[in-house]
């Protein structure tokens, strides 16, 4: 099998080491996974193999059970890999009759017309001359599946040699040239984990404990939390049902290594005949080999830290349409205020092109933008057009931000929030603010003099003249006017809230596993979306409305539309909780941040994962796209803000300064400044344009798939503003570039 190469590198044939990528189950992925098969297998063996099948009933049952389970869960890539390993034809699968078949064939089945029936499958796998008992489908519980996963640890060698093998490899790596040492040191952590788990699974508890105590301190500091979890797995019984273990066993740890460094490692293991480590590399590691100079320790550390190692270069080479959609043609009428502004301050129309040049939505079609019809978007209503006119008027008065012109900051402190403030959001026009609380409530406030009112009752609405010009004003009941409204419905803490772009609806996600849609006209719950089985940590409306996304503890993000009860898409691939979700400005992509310390970008059209970003050393809690759609900023518990180029799939910047978890990131409306809010009670402003302008385009063409990050955080930091004692939960730039921040006072 060949290691996947990127850039100008050629594929290298590696017969000793398996480098298939880990399985990412994505719904609606219709790719032909079987297209890689180039040779027909011989009867009872794998491609090119003459070794006959074992014929054991247990192997037959296990193979069929695994095939059925993988096919049932649409893991087509895993099905194809297992099929090839077993030497079965590409178009074999019709497993409907597998449960009832008896496998009575005396010889391996033959390929006729490209397909096999269930009996032929059984005979191909077993080569048994006697009839066997019916094969039972795997039960629905998780436990048998865990047993299948763990059983791979049973075929191991002398436990006393594990420490010798690991020490020998460590000694070898410590003696190689400095330029190779940093890259080869990446293998320490995955080897350490798998060797420890093998010892525990085979009941060598004392040996495993000694192995852990001797070598756990040598691992990188950013794996400390994972090692704490691992230290609790001291008996075979502890391993069953453990999520962290299953993550590590079912996904291959990705290592990006230069060709020269890899050849050193391969030569050493072959000379020493170190089969124990060789088997682990073959089974559990994905070696992403690149041509060129080996990476430095700082370059490796910048990209490392996730549960599954680095993101593969091949995973970040799909075409991404990051440009903005063409804006509808709406004429901007001049009112008296505009005419006065024209007389006093000059021509305001000259400010409008500046809005386009600074990364806002453009009237010209962006060459990198998706087509207008790539995904269905809601049609503009008259109220939407009026709102866009208001947006354009506000944009003409927008303050141009920069190093010498920082924004004013207005902080909203939630006092006496004994319910526990857990989520905050502002409307796009900054007229409303909503808070989610740990007591299951949601409260909406008006931050303008205009109070919140409900629509009149049906009996009162019948008395209204529907043809009058002010009908929208007449339908509102003045008797219900108040500064805030309280929304009850959830049965657990509210962790995510999001206003719709037209300010008519509010989404809230909760620990109770539901997402609720609230009407801001009647202040009642319209729909409860039930798809997640566990807490839903975040939800967000699309910039164009209608669509929204949710993510939670079940590791799956779901794409919904407001008029359907079931999700349109399910984005599966993360190895831990999805903690934050964000729509791209053109609504064609969704970004998800996770506790597995990775960020993934998903294509709304087909559900594919088109980007995997690694580099954070802790769970990710904040994401923000730049207004022009080209860049993404992320923040995590490690206190770092990382900047990503979406088109090239590369990390392009690192902003250090926060001392605690970053919970909110927001680009200014013109994209000049990035604001970050943290649990360290500070708001920091960064010079985003300088960070992007300092990039050298030559870096993006490097076949190694990485660039050298500048340590220029202090140069890019424009200001740090400290609250009295309020963690910053949310940031929002108004249409005129005033920065609004919010958080609960924590005395």
UniProtKB/TrEMBL annotation:
- Skewed-composition ranges (Low complexity): 27-41
Q: Does the keyword Repeat apply?
A: yes
Record key words, sorted: Nucleus, Repeat, Transcription, Transcription regulation, WD repeat
On whether Nucleus is a keyword of this UniProt record, the answer is yes
Note the Pfam families from the entry. TFIID_NTD2, WD40
Give the PROSITE patterns listed for this entry.
LISH (PS50896), WD_REPEATS_1 (PS00678), WD_REPEATS_2 (PS50082), WD_REPEATS_REGION (PS50294)
Q: Which SMART domains match?
A: WD40 (SM00320)
Transmembrane portions of the chain: none
Localisation per UniProt entry: Nucleus
Biased composition annotated in UniProt, kind: Acidic residues = 332-343
Describe the family membership recorded for this protein in Swiss-Prot or TrEMBL: Belongs to the WD repeat TAF5 family.
Gene Ontology molecular function terms on file: RNA polymerase II general transcription initiation factor activity
Q: What is this protein called?
A: Transcription initiation factor TFIID subunit 5
Source organism: Hippocampus comes
Q: Name one GO biological process term.
A: transcription initiation at RNA polymerase II promoter
Question: Which stretches are tagged as biased composition: Basic and acidic residues?
Answer: 355-366
> TFIID subunit TAF5 NTD2 domain: from which residue to which, for each copy?
157-285
Residues in WD repeats: 414-455, 487-522, 529-560, 571-612, 613-646, 655-687
List the GO cellular component terms. transcription factor TFIID complex
Q: Which InterPro entries match?
A: LisH, TFIID_NTD2, TFIID_NTD2_sf, WD40/YVTN_repeat-like_dom_sf, WD40_PAC1, WD40_repeat_CS, WD40_repeat_dom_sf, WD40_rpt
Region feature Disordered, mapped onto this chain: 27-53, 97-118, 332-379
Ranges of Gly residues composition bias in the record: 103-116
